[in-house]
Amino acid sequence: MSDRITVEELSELMKKAAGVTVPAKDLQQQQDSGFDTFGIDSLGLLGIVGELENRYGTPMPPDAERSKTPRQFLELVNSALLAGA
């Protein structure tokens, strides 16, 4: 298990935790689009954060669930994982 979340992993998590299917390549191309563009609301994002906390056994930054875009989310989460590694 790496200590970085990739766009592919985020795509998987969106499907698993929020029930929203977005192909990784679409997510990659639209990293600066709002999560709402993909149909992810704050509860969906909370689910994704919860999944990550379970997977890595470490709390995610409180701002993660308030991220507006996939890029912002990945930067926050990955810097927290790197700091905790």
Automatic annotation (TrEMBL):
Pfam families cross-referenced by the UniProt entry: PP-binding
InterPro entries per the UniProt record, alphabetical: ACP-like_sf, PP-bd_ACP, Ppantetheine_attach_site
Domain Carrier intervals: 4-85
UniProt keywords, alphabetically: Phosphopantetheine, Phosphoprotein
Entry annotated with the keyword Phosphoprotein: yes
Protein's UniProt keywords contain Phosphoprotein: yes
Protein name: Probable acyl carrier protein
Organism: Streptomyces leeuwenhoekii
Lineage, uppermost ranks: Bacteria, Bacillati, Actinomycetota, Actinomycetes, Kitasatosporales
